[in-house]
Amino acid sequence: MPKTVERREKITTFLKSSNVLSIKALSELLKVSTMTVRRDLETLAKEGIVQFYHGGVIFNPTFLKQESNPNDYFLQGQTMLHRDEKTAIARKAIELPHSQETIMFDSGTTVYYLARELSDTINLTAFVWSLNIIEELIHKPQINILMQGGVYHPETQMFESTQSQDIIKNSRASKAFISAGGFHKSLGITCPFHYEVETKRTAIKHSMTNILLIDSSKFGKVCPAHMAETADFQVIITDPGIPEEYEDFIRSSGLELIVA
């Protein structure tokens, strides 16, 4: 394989496994000049594989859909979709945890952004069952992490097992931050995979305040696995793109709606 092709494949692999990388970081990883990396990136951008983003570069989630089954769920692609909205939701959500609380962090990309945005100085006990969120929280020295084990699901980076759900049942949290793939007025709140359901439901049942983090693209959408109803939550945080009918529906249901 020509070195140029091999190098570009490595760049694509690095960007699939990272949220965003700078040209300098790619240069150091590949041990080539920044000029060489820039030429490679310009080629990959023309092919629709990467996108330049705020001083860095990301893997293009649209290309991810093109190269795979469109019905498949890929965590990295989902992480990059609606990135600005998820970041805004996370920055609003970090106002809710207080020092010394026990918090449950669900799997999901918006919850990942919450974990990333949390202050390094906040003192929490975090109950976690998703690898990407664990990887964020381990860099925050004041957070005590309780990790749920079990079968690892790479498409969501979630650990899941009956034994782990028993641990949650024997635990209590002041707040649980939950994610969802769909929110429908009559069909409820849904997620892509059935194996996610019991862990989400168990967390909701054993938390004092349940907070749904959901970007506006999910309203009106239905995923295969039903995991909760609107009434299971006390707070919903979303972005300004929420349809007016859903904003009215949530407020009329007596929930606190926070628009980031």
Can you walk through the features of this model?
- This protein is α/β, with parallel strands linked by helices.
- The chain folds into two domains: 3-67, Winged helix-like DNA-binding domain superfamily/Winged helix DNA-binding domain (Arc Repressor Mutant, subunit A), CATH 1.10.10; 80-259, Rossmann fold (3-Layer(aba) Sandwich), CATH 3.40.50.1360.
- The protein has eleven helices and 14 strands.
- It has helices spanning 3-17, 23-30, 34-46, 61-66, 75-80, 83-93, 109-117, 131-137, 162-169, 197-205, 244-252, and strands at 50-53, 56-59, 102-105, 124-128, 143-147, 151-153, 158-160, 173-179, 182-184, 188-191, 207-213, 225-228, 235-238, 256-259.
- The strands form four sheets. The protein has a seven-stranded parallel β-sheet, with helices on both faces.
- It starts with a helix and ends with a strand.
- Mean pLDDT is 87; it is low at 67-73.
Return residue spans where pLDDT drops below 50 for at least 5 consecutive residues: 67-73
Q: Count of DSSP helices?
A: 11
Element-level helix/strand string: HHHEEHHHEHEHEEEHEEEHEEEHE
Could you say what the CATH architecture of the largest domain is? 3-Layer(aba) Sandwich
Please name the CATH topology of the largest domain: Rossmann fold
- Rg (CA only): 19 Å
Terminus-to-terminus distance: 48 Å
Care to count the β-strands?
Answer: 14
| Portion in beta strands | 15-25%
The biggest sheet amounts to: 7 strands, parallel
Q: What percent of residues adopt helix (DSSP H or I)? A: 25-40%
Widest beta sheet: strand line-up:
5-4-3-8-11-13-14
